Amino acid sequence: MAILAPFRGITYNFEAGLDLSKLVTPPYDVISDEEQEFYYQSDPHNIIRLILGKRKIGDIDWDNQYTRAAEFFRKWQREGILVRSENPCIYLTSLTYRPGFGEPLRTRWGIIAVIRIEDETSGVILPHEKTFSAHKDDRLKLMRSCNAQFSPIFGLYEDPGNNILDACLVGADPEPRISFDFRDGTKHRMWILNNDSLFRELAAFMSEKRIFIADGHHRYETSRNFRNIMRERHGRRPAGRSYEYVMMYLSSMNDKGLTILPSHRLIKTVPGFDLESFLKTLTTWFNIREYPFSDAGIPRDCMNLRTEIRGLGQQDTVIAFCINPVRKFYIFSLKPDAREKISGDIHPSLKKLDVIVLSRLVLREALGFSKEDLDDTENFHYQSDMETAVTDVISGTYRMAFLLNPTKIEHVMEIAGNSLVMPRKSTYFYPKVLTGLVINEIDPYETIQVP
């Protein structure tokens, strides 16, 4: 099944007294223009210059954000800012964070290793969300310029017995190699593992597993496209060339620190919208009740609403709705048997998803959006924080918001296991895996040694 191996990772030089908290970033696709500028200003060696370089007027084929990233990458290695491990390693990480909603701190554990890239039909590495070409084209240009993978794919595997983490903890030093607090309040630690017997144990365990992609679908498909390009240029022999592998951050689905946040939908405009007609149409599929704003304020109202729809959502699909300028929420509870009225040839596993119910019955049937309309990122926005979503509606930034419960991990597994994909932004695994902890350099003349 999954083929795991250690690799010679590139890291920031831990001996140079660098402040890691000012050098790393979230994945490129969640960084706003304002955040990009912040990371640019935080440190001249921040990895933002590699993963999301600034465009300039007059960019040309031989001088653009991708070629500049490659030059920074080479320069930082020459200067000793970035250093490559002499021996293949696996990297153990812990991420401590507050999940919100008044819940206590959680710690999610993971390992960073390389995994052999699989063809789509192998059934070994399973996606669960659809991807878009523009993102893949952008990442492929970066990989081809730099011959490197800067951000790990976030993968999940089943391990009820906690075997992988227990083995890694036994093999790790008492103190982490790095430890720092990131600007979002998360605490990060990383140990560097260099033990051949441990590598054999981990590889044997993963050889019986499938991997579910939690985050980084575009980057995984890009790695496969890059592999195919390199195969044409350099061949498939000897086996195990570095471009046959991709760097992954792997965490257990059974890890107590695993959190999935909801992905609320916000909409700027709905042509010809009439609230009364909309609600009347929805009564075909939903029971509707009002949930008025209180005098306690939006944070308290959102906390109470979240608790309400979470409890109701244990039984069936529940969606909350707010619209500017109405000062109340509406709660839509799916009627018995209404799920079967979802039109089209949709697999039963997909019909279980709240996002499918929202997409098919509410957005397409009741509001009249087409499938193509739903991919319009100018009109549709995704937000994991309910309070932010509601505030954006009240302020008029968006006209309306549909507020959801998080997708259940068992639904993610079922859908991926059936070789199906969810609508975009169906899940938000929180927190994101930081970029800059480890870099995977892809030298076409090097081979990966499987333990």
Beta-strand segment tally: 21
Mean pLDDT score: 93
Question: Can you tell me the number of structural domains?
Answer: 2
Most strands sheet: 9 strands, mixed
Helix fraction, binned, reads: 25-40%
Structural class: alpha+beta
Supply the number of helical segments.
13
Instruction: Write down the overall geometry.
Output: globular
Strand content: 15-25%
Distance linking N and C termini? 15 Å
| Oligomer designation | single chain
The low-confidence parts are: none
CA radius of gyration is 23 Å
What does this structure look like?
The model has no long low-confidence stretch (mean pLDDT about 95). It contains 13 helices and 21 strands. Strand 16 and strand 17 (about 330-335) form a beta hairpin. The strands form 5 sheets. Strands 1, 4, 5, 6, 8, 9, 10, 11 and 12 form a 9-stranded mixed sheet that branches. With about 450 residues, it is an alpha+beta fold.
How does the SSE layout of this entry go?
Elements: E1 4-5, E2 10-12, H1 33-42, H2 48-51, H3 65-78, E3 82-84, E4 90-97, E5 106-116, E6 125-126, H4 133-146, E7 148-149, E8 153-157, H5 163-171, E9 178-181, E10 187-193, H6 196-206, E11 211-215, H7 217-234, E12 245-252, E13 259-261, E14 264-267, H8 275-282, E15 286-292, H9 298-312, E16 318-323, E17 328-334, H10 348-351, H11 354-366, E18 380-383, H12 386-394, E19 400-403, H13 409-417, E20 428-430, E21 440-441
Parallel strand pairs: 6-11, 8-12
Antiparallel strand pairs: 1-5, 2-3, 4-5, 4-10, 5-12, 7-21, 8-11, 9-10, 13-20, 14-18, 14-19, 15-17, 16-17, 16-19
Helix pairs in contact: 3-4, 4-7, 5-6, 9-12
